[in-house]
Structure formats: C-alpha cells, structure tokens
Amino acid sequence: MSLASFENPVIRGHRRMVLLTDGHSTPFLAKTAINLLRYRGQDVIGVLDQHEAGKTAAEVFGVGGDTPVVAHLQQVPNADALYVGIAPPGGKLPLEWRDLILEAIDRGWDVVSGLHDFVHLNADYAQAAARVGVHLVDVRHNHYRDIAAGRGLSDRCVRIHTVGHDCSLGKMVVALEVQRALQAAGHRAQFLATGQTGIMISGQGVPVDCVVADFVNGAIEQLVRATEDAEFQLIEGQGSISHPAYSAVTLGLLHGCAPDGLIYCYEAGREYVKGLDQVPLPTCEAQLDVLQRIANLRHPCEVLGIAVNTRLLNAEAAAAEVRTAEQRFGLPACDVYRDGPAKLVAAALTLQARRLPS
Amino acid sequence: MSLASFENPVIRGHRRMVLLTDGHSTPFLAKTAINLLRYRGQDVIGVLDQHEAGKTAAEVFGVGGDTPVVAHLQQVPNADALYVGIAPPGGKLPLEWRDLILEAIDRGWDVVSGLHDFVHLNADYAQAAARVGVHLVDVRHNHYRDIAAGRGLSDRCVRIHTVGHDCSLGKMVVALEVQRALQAAGHRAQFLATGQTGIMISGQGVPVDCVVADFVNGAIEQLVRATEDAEFQLIEGQGSISHPAYSAVTLGLLHGCAPDGLIYCYEAGREYVKGLDQVPLPTCEAQLDVLQRIANLRHPCEVLGIAVNTRLLNAEAAAAEVRTAEQRFGLPACDVYRDGPAKLVAAALTLQARRLPS
To answer: Which residue of chain B is at minimal alpha-carbon distance from A149?
Structure first.
C-alpha cells in the first residue's frame, strides 16, 4: 500500500474550520480542538462553545490567538467544515449536539468527527448530508483486515515511537515537534498519525484504537511500510503499556511499528490514570523497564530520551524537573514546548548514525 | 451485566452439528473442528471434507471416534447446523465454500461461523436464511463499547489465565481441563471463553480478537465481572505477549481479566511463530519475564505452573520434557492430555488458600 491509502483528501482540503467543543472546553476533553488550533490554526475560523462565547481561543484554550469563540454557527457563516473538537474516554458523541450538527450540514459544511459514535451511521445526519451534498467524515472509521507479517521492515528508515506514562500528556505533540525539527534541519522525516487528532492535523494515519483487535499490529505495520522512503518515521503513541483500558492499543502499536527508538513522555505531577477513577499510575521506571523488554521481543529498540510535560509547573520548577529527569533516567530530557525538541532531535540523529547499514 | 449477556442460546441448542473443514483439515487450520469433536462430540454427527470422505473423524483428526467424514451434506440429512470448523490466520472464509453454505441454509440448518468474514453480512446468505427461517451466527460479531474501569474486581474469586509461547498450542484446552477438574472436585469453577472455538464449545464468552481495540480490556473486564460468584475463573488466553500480529489482543485480555495466577503453555519443539513466515519465537524465559512484569503493573499476579504440549513427542520424550520443564522453570508442569491437569489444579487451590481474604 502507498501512503495515499492512508490519506484523507477531504480533511486536507478544509480551510475554514469551526471546532465544536460546546460545554466540553476543559483541556482534557478538548484536546482535539486545542491541537487543531496549535497545528492547523491557519485553517480554523472559530470555536463553538456557548459557555465561553465572546472570548478568544487563546483566552479559553491558551492557544489559537484571536480566533473567536462563538455561541452560534451563524456567527461564522463562511465556514467549510464543523470539526468535533473533543476526545472523551469511550468516544461518545454528546446527544445535545444533534441540532448543531444538523445545522452545520444544512449550512453546507462537511462534518468531521473522531469519535467512536460514527456520524455517517446516524440516519438523520446521513439523509441531511446526502440532500445537501456534504461529507460526513468519521476519522476512526476503518476496514483494516490484514494481520502483521512481523518481518521485512526497512533497515534504512529510522523508526521512532513516542510512548508514555499515561494518556493525554503529549505523545502526539512530541512526535510532531521532533518531525518538524528534523524536517527543518533538512531530513526527510514523516509524522505518522495513529489517533483522531493527529489524523485531523496531518490528513493521514491509522485510527489505531478503532481497528479490530486482530488487525491492530497489521494496520500499523502497513502504515510504516507505506512511508519507508523517509529517513525518519515519527510514530505517534497511544495510551500506555500499563493502561487498564487501552494497553491493547498501546502494545499493538508498539509491535506493529517495531521501533528502533522510543521517546518516553510523562507529565510532572500526574499520579492517577487520566479519565479513570482513582487508579494509580505505576512509576515511570517500572513502565520503562517493561517497555524496553517488550519492544525488544519484536525488534532491537532503545530509549532515546525523555519528553517532560511541565504544564502544571512554573518556569523555574519546570527547568528543575527536566534536570531531575536527565539524572533520574540517564537520558536527554526536555519539555518540547518550553525548550524545543533539540535534545531529542540530536538523539535521533545519533541513533541514525549508529543504526544505519554502512 | 450478567453472564446471560455473554451467552448464545442458539449455539447451545444445536444437537446435530456438521463441521465444515473441506480442504483445510490440517491440525493448525481445523483446530475449531478438532476441539468441537473433543469437547462437544456428543453434538456432532459429521464432518464435511471431500478429500477425507469415507474415513472417521478419529482417523483424520485423532479425535471424534467414529463420527463420519462425508463428501456431501446429503449424507448427514438430519443435521441442525453447519459449523465452520477452521480458524485460519486473518479469519477469511474460503470462497469455494459458498455453495456448501447456501445448501446448508436451504436444508434448514443454522450456519455458525467464527471467522472475521461475517456470514450474516453476505447478502445471498442473509436472503436465503430469511427465506428458510434459519440463524446465521457469527461468533466473532460484537458491539462492545465500554472501556475498562481498571479496578473493583472481586477478591473472593480466583482469576486464572492461560497464556503461552505462541498461538494454537493449547491455552483453551488447558483452561477447560483445569476448570473441569476443579468442578469435578466440587469447586465452583467457570470457564470463560475468549475465542471462536471456546465460545462454540461453551456457548458463552467474548470474541476478544474481534473487539474494537479501545474496548478489548473493557469487554473482558465485563465478562469477568459477570461471573464473580464462582470460586475460580479460568480465562482462556490468546496469541502471545510477543506475537507480531496478535500481541494487542493478548495484552488487552491480560489486563482486562487482571489475573491472580497464570498458567504458561508452550509446545515442545516449536521454534517459529505459527502461521507467520520464518519469524523466530523468543525464549519462554524472556516471555515469562515480561508477562510477570506486565501483569503485575495491573494486579498482583504469579505464575502457577507450566502446561507442556508434547504432541510431537513419544511417551518417553514427553515425560522427559515435562521433568525438564519443572526444573527449568521451578514450577509444577504437565501435559494435560497425557498426565491430566492435577498438578495445575493443586497449584490453583494453593493460590486460593493464600489469596483469599480470611
């Protein structure tokens, strides 16, 4: 398969997107909207949340500049698409959004959703969309049905996979930042999205958490195989290897992409599994130990560096946390937002020099 | 959810089953048929394979006694169901079976399949079945959509999970044999099926390899929760923790059922991953090391014993292999077919005595 099999031209074509977060604008729930503002902000003309209307995106989400937050779709009349901007655990579409979605369709906008509740399977939406002639895009919808071969990946492309302590602490962001920095330095680096937000940003990828379990490893192996002409692949991670709900996704992804290097992401101060009630996180050390062993059962793999998410800390505490991380793990560490990804890029280049067949 | 949510009364009701293995009667491909003959033989009246017709099931499969292998469905006219008896990698239905399936439907038989290609979604089969009034049962078809909570399982029911070196080496058989032996000894022991064959045998379970990846752990957690009134749960394992294609399934199942004890299964002499081309297996020691660590990230768990599959060995070599396994792993070991499961049952009872709150 070529990369084209994993691309979505409809998503790529949108230039006047409205992000829907109505009533769900906390950073955890609205992470899709937040990252679309960050990485595709030029294509976003507004965010819909009645409770935050009148503010700017920057005021509500800390990103997105002056992009207006509005209470009604009529305030952004020239949009071309409504994007569901939330990623709640379990992926259910809020029932109260029904009228908003129908209104967007009636206005001639495409509707793009990354939830497990598919909009294209809702009879009312489908009828309206057919009548108006717009697309209903369910980013998670897929038909992968090939099992992984477990061998035959290129040894000329360095596969780097972001893994982490928990959900929702920056694995996609770190992969994107390292890919962009490698590209800026003149390297052919490919970001491979594996989640709804990454796919909405890049217009390609595998919605791995919605693949039928037998084919998770295989879908990711195919995605990797389709882009082996790159020097580097930055494969977005999901969940965590110990996640009570999502570890199946995490391991299928890890074995499917058979990484040469891992970047381990954690958030300073996080003690409990996000979205679950009072389930404590294991230590980073216990996870890293298991990650290295289990990755190496598939393919020789090392940990390149640590990406620390310091969003809860002030600048001084953040710098101290990063220094502590370097000592604690004996690896280069940084917060990609505060420090940039230079240390992780350097580690990737060192791995490339060591791994590539001469 | 109660256990009833996981039960299939149609499957349980069949008493005159014909197993379809036509052209695929090798032990690896026909493992569904072989285990239906073994564990539900009283409900099987014939096997259809033109290439082996005229023989008995025992002659072709080594199990099933005098059950005839036939060339045509008309030779078993009073059947009530046709069971697809194969489990090929990837789960595709052989195209050449189309006419046989339509003939079975026309004869008024239900059709039961455990493949990923769903028979009930085939328009020709569906029309014929509706006309005749028979059931098309796709054992893998499911709609699990709840994520795991990661906590709250009973500490009064001992959860025992069979894991293994590879696919297709006896994880289901070992779970069934231990469950039956515990039951025979007067204990309330529940077998929990997680694959097509186990579901066809027991009429209940979760087809875990066909669950959408995000919900794998959750579906298994629900299955466990539904039967916690048992003293013991014997949860059938799938794949292996290092399987290049199926490790997502294996880990989701392991973390979903949060076992107290593992029984590790391996086949003497197996060196390569079954069904994949020349992918070597890791050592049992490397796998066991990772299994213990990764299981304990979810819930305190120990390895109870080793189930050795000695099908390739003669009696003397088999006995030697089992003795070697006891020394190699420092754990009780047996081949459940040759030796019975008594050592594993004893280990389960010891764990119960140690684990149960007093």
So the answer is: B276
